Design the sequence.
């Protein structure tokens, strides 16, 4: 299959791919101290919200994968965007804890059942047979750039409604400011959904990449592929590492003693590192062995995790803090850009991409259930820097396991 889709197909894929996750993940990552403040929640309570999301997502992955092999990706993705934006209207009312759990469960359905596998399949279609690294690198890098720009917009909107000294702004004003941020992005998501529905059309006949019916035999054939099982482990470990980036802005606030705006700016800087890494990897990796680069990404994650876990970073080591953030970002974001790009090397059929992604994700993205809960427990039970050290020891351990699985994948598929 040749790369035939147009450039604006990829642009819309990137915009949609990040926009759908703005409300449940991007804003809480960039504004974590503010979110915990305005919702009046502990780390553990916020972890319960994301765990509910993860449980619904786990149920949605396999069924959504099958759906992606039967219906055009652009239509499923557009519907998902619109439904996700509707949830933002509830989010902006700062609902009670119980309602918030229902909302995150709803987002687990809209962003995964209707969106995730269609996005991955659409990316494979754009990349064709020879540019999978480019396709997935540009997707994740582009999503990161979009997240960075969205982050800048969010910080700008938030800063319009708070005083220069955030600490002197009343609680009510901080809530109102964050509500404006939520409303703004809900409108953006709706607009991107409209563009996706009408304009995200590839040069490939949609009938060529869809199946009328998915049989049990076909699902069984996917499960027999060693690549599928290895990718389950690789993605699980890489995703734990990625989830840990959610607390970097909180680390800046509580350990490095940054205020809420400064910590949000640090979170936005982290979002900038994602496109830089993803785009660079995407542009060069197809010339080399993608599977070997995946191994290197886990090695970088291990090094970055150890820098934080050993406790050598503090308020007086600003340069080392930024260096460590960069090392972790390179490892984590490289892995994200590559773990679906190696599906082509693993001989996973294009027409069964959705089914394979659904089955892989069923295990690979279980951190949506347990990661935030684990972080919340470690942070709340060991306040301050010791809690953060424990979280980064967790990152290091998972990165070691993921690196071993990636090395096995390379030995099976990458040396040919």
Sequence:
């Amino acid at each position: 299959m040749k790369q035939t889709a147009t450039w604006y197909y990829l642009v819309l894929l990137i915009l949609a791919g990040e926009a759908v996750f703005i409300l449940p993940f991007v804003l809480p990552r960039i504004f974590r101290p503010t979110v915990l403040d305005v919702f009046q929640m502990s780390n553990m309570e916020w972890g319960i919200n994301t765990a509910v999301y993860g449980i619904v997502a786990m149920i949605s992955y396999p069924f959504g994968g099958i759906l992606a092999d039967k219906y055009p990706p652009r239509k499923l993705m557009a519907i998902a965007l619109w439904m996700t934006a509707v949830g933002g209207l509830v989010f902006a009312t700062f609902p009670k804890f119980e309602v918030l759990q229902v909302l995150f469960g709803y987002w687990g359905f809209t962003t995964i059942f209707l969106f995730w596998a269609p996005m991955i399949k659409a990316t494979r279609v754009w990349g064709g047979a020879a540019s999978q690294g480019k396709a997935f690198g540009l997707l994740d890098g582009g999503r990161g750039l979009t997240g960075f720009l969205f982050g800048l917009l969010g910080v700008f909107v938030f800063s319009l409604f708070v005083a220069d000294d955030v600490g002197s702004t009343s609680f009510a004003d901080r809530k109102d400011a964050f509500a404006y941020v939520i409303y703004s992005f809900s409108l953006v998501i709706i607009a991107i959904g409209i563009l996706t529905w009408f304009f995200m059309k590839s040069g490939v006949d949609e009938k060529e990449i869809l199946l009328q019916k998915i049989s049990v035999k076909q699902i069984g054939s996917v499960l027999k592929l060693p690549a599928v099982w290895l990718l389950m482990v690789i993605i699980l470990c890489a995703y734990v590492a990625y989830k840990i980036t959610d607390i970097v802005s909180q680390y800046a606030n509580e350990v490095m003693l940054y205020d809420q705006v400064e910590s949000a700016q640090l979170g936005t800087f982290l979002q900038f590192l994602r496109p830089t890494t993803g785009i660079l990897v995407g542009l060069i990796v197809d010339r080399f062995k993608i599977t070997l680069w995946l191994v290197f990404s886990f090695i970088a994650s291990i090094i970055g995790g150890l820098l934080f876990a050993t406790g050598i970073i503090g308020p007086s080591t600003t340069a080392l803090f930024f260096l460590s953030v960069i090392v972790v970002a390179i490892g984590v974001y490289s892995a994200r850009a590559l773990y679906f790009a190696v599906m082509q090397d693993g001989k996973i059929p294009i027409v069964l991409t959705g089914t394979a992604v659904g089955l892989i994700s069923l295990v690979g993205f279980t951190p949506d259930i347990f990661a935030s809960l684990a972080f919340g427990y470690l942070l709340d039970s060991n306040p301050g820097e010791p809690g953060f050290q424990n979280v980064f020891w967790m990152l290091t351990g998972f990165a070691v396991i993921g690196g071993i699985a990636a090395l096995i994948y390379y030995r099976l598929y990458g040396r040919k």
